Amino acid sequence: MKAVISDFGGVLTTPLGNSFAAWQRESGIGLEELGTAMAAATERHGEHPLFVLEKGEISQAEFLRRIAAELDRARSVDGMLDVYFAHLERNHEMIDFMAELRDRGLRMALLTNNVREWEP
Question: pTM of the prediction?
């Protein structure tokens, strides 16, 4: 083995479900309701909103607009991504393991499908 390729979300971070669960608690919008809204947006636009977001085909704002359009009018996705990122933490165990592999001489690469607006 000469190199290690890693994803970012859920590998170098804590599981993504933790962040969605935190947003559910803070927003009052259940994961089932969110899933239903995403399914409706998929039906309306022809492709899952998260997939087109991660491919850079729509903006983060458009992603949120598509979800909000499918939710009950009293519901809001405002602050969704702030809560999501506030609860996404480093996976210290995996990061330490990757550092150990790097120290053994292996090359490191990151291959991920992050959103354009999330780039540094």
Answer: 0.75
